[in-house]
From TrEMBL:
Transmembrane segments: none annotated. Gene3D superfamilies: 3.40.50.11270, 4-hydroxy-3-methylbut-2-enyl diphosphate reductase, catalytic domain (3.40.1010.20). GO terms for biological process: dimethylallyl diphosphate biosynthetic process; isopentenyl diphosphate biosynthetic process, methylerythritol 4-phosphate pathway. It comes from Perilla frutescens var. hirtella. Its cofactor is [4Fe-4S] cluster. Its EC number is 1.17.7.4. This is 4-hydroxy-3-methylbut-2-enyl diphosphate reductase. InterPro entries: LytB/IspH. Pathway: Isoprenoid biosynthesis; dimethylallyl diphosphate biosynthesis; dimethylallyl diphosphate from (2E)-4-hydroxy-3-methylbutenyl diphosphate: step 1/1; Isoprenoid biosynthesis; isopentenyl diphosphate biosynthesis via DXP pathway; isopentenyl diphosphate from 1-deoxy-D-xylulose 5-phosphate: step 6/6.
Length: 429
């Protein structure tokens, strides 16, 4: 039985397309960048909800695509991302199949989700709709190197970032800006509007649902507790729609927060207000005061966090508010909406189930900076040569919601290649 999931670095299976990164140690690029925009000052005083409504009504705005899907976009996307036949073969056989010395077991839920597929389709259609214009992406469209490289090859460039600042000055009048599946902060949208550019918005509808949630918190004067990573593009965008907010990364931070709410009555982990503000320095709205701003709270999430974790954090916060204010007063102090996408959780559950099978190892395929892919990794990380056992091997394959099927297939083909070289070297002895 495979007791832990391990990662190894393997090189590209096909020379044409680099594999989605599979790294263990080695130098790791910063996963997330907190960016601020340069250029004309973007006002943050406007009501984000009203602004977005106006933004979406502009004639230079599109979030549905351009009707080219059945033409070349579909064909090009299939060529770039669809699996040729290995994934299909696995699916036909209950997600398990043996090719010579390699048996593959595929996680039931794996790879690209609906929201990512939709974002890519719209971006591909934008290239076709605007064949000669400059097209910019406000961020990586998703956290997958293969996908971002493909778009770059199509002339879709990411707005550069210098010393933590997004260089929006590179975008000129008449250019096209594609907003990534993670969305964009309000100030950035405002700045782009001033620049008179064509906007193609691929924000996943589940992400904009979270924006509506924090807007409702704001309307009711509840502080948004956002379960996410404060510098992740999606959370930066979500926070820009919130009023008062605090971002908690995990249960440890949520417990600290709740302990503070309960005056040390949860587990004693919190201490002074100064220590609280230092701990959440980068993760709170301007002027945040934990003594006043935690009296009325609601919970929202970064969609790539695990659903179960967000639900547990929500329960902990709700219980803490009940303890503080009484069950009868909970609705005045806690508000909850269900906006959690299952995409990341389903893939994690499937990976967990896969790890219970008889396997020699599991390969997790996806971008190193992909939050949903990283959530599939548990257990010890090791780096080693000769990582593939000799002889017959049974491999589990898992993949995050931003991983195209073609990447998964490329990894499997690479394993076949290594095994065939092994056979060859044995024959040569
Ligand atoms: S995992 Fe969910 S929220 Fe994230 S892109 Fe996919 S569908 Fe959208």
């Amino acid at each position: 039985m495979a007791s832990c999931v391990q990662f190894w670095r393997i090189s590209s299976a096909r020379t044409e397309i680099p594999l989605t990164e599979m790294r263990v140690f080695g130098r790791r690029m910063p996963s997330f960048l907190r960016c601020s925009v340069t250029g004309e000052a973007a006002s943050s005083e406007l009501d984000p909800k009203v602004f977005r409504h106006e933004f979406m009504r502009r004639k230079e705005y599109n979030r549905k695509g351009f009707g080219h899907h059945e033409e070349t976009s579909l064909e090009r996307m299939s060529r770039d991302y669809a699996s040729e036949n290995i994934i299909e073969k696995l699916k036909e056989n209950g997600n398990e199949y043996r090719w010579g010395e390699v048996s593959v077991k595929l996680a039931e839920a794996h790879g690209i989700c609906w929201g990512v597929d939709r974002a890519l389709r719209i971006a591909y259609e934008a290239r076709q709709q605007f064949p000669t214009q400059n097209i910019w992406l406000n961020n990586q469209i998703i956290h997958n190197p293969t996908v971002n490289q493909r778009l770059e090859e199509m002339g879709v460039k990411i707005i550069p970032v210098k010393e933590g600042k997004k260089q929006v000055d590179v975008v000129g009048k008449g250019d096209v800006v594609v907003l990534s599946a993670f969305g964009a902060p309000v100030d950035e949208m405002k700045l782009l509007t001033q620049k008179n550019v064509e906007i193609v918005d691929t924000t996943c509808p589940w992400v904009s649902k979270v924006w509506h949630t924090v807007e409702k918190h704001k309307k009711g004067e509840y502080t948004s507790i956002i379960h996410g990573k404060y510098a992740h593009e999606e959370t930066v965008a979500t926070a820009s729609f919130a009023g008062k907010y605090i971002i908690v990364r995990d249960m440890e931070e949520a417990s600290y927060l709740c302990d503070y709410i309960l005056g040390g009555g949860l587990n004693g982990s919190s201490s002074t207000k100064e220590a609280f503000l230092e701990k959440f320095n980068d993760a709170v709205s301007r002027g945040f005061d934990p003594d006043k701003d935690l009296e009325k709270v609601g919970v929202a999430n970064q969609t790539t966090m695990l659903k179960r974790d967000t639900e547990e954090i929500g329960k902990l916060v709700e219980n803490s508010m009940m303890r503080n204010y009484g069950v009868e007063n909970i609705s005045k102090h806690f508000i909850s909406f269900n906006t959690i996408c299952d995409g990341a959780q389903e893939r994690q559950d499937a990976t967990q189930k896969l790890a219970e099978k008889e396997l020699d190892l599991i390969l997790v395929v996806g971008g190193w900076n992909s939050s949903n892919t990283l959530s599939l990794q548990h257990g010890e990380l090791v780096e080693k040569e000769e990582w593939l056992p000799k002889g017959h091997v049974t491999i589990g394959i898992a993949a995050g919601a931003s991983t195209p099927h073609k990447d998964i297939e490329d990894v499997i083909v690479k394993v076949f290649q290594i095994k065939s070289e092994e056979d060859y070297s044995h024959a040569a002895i």
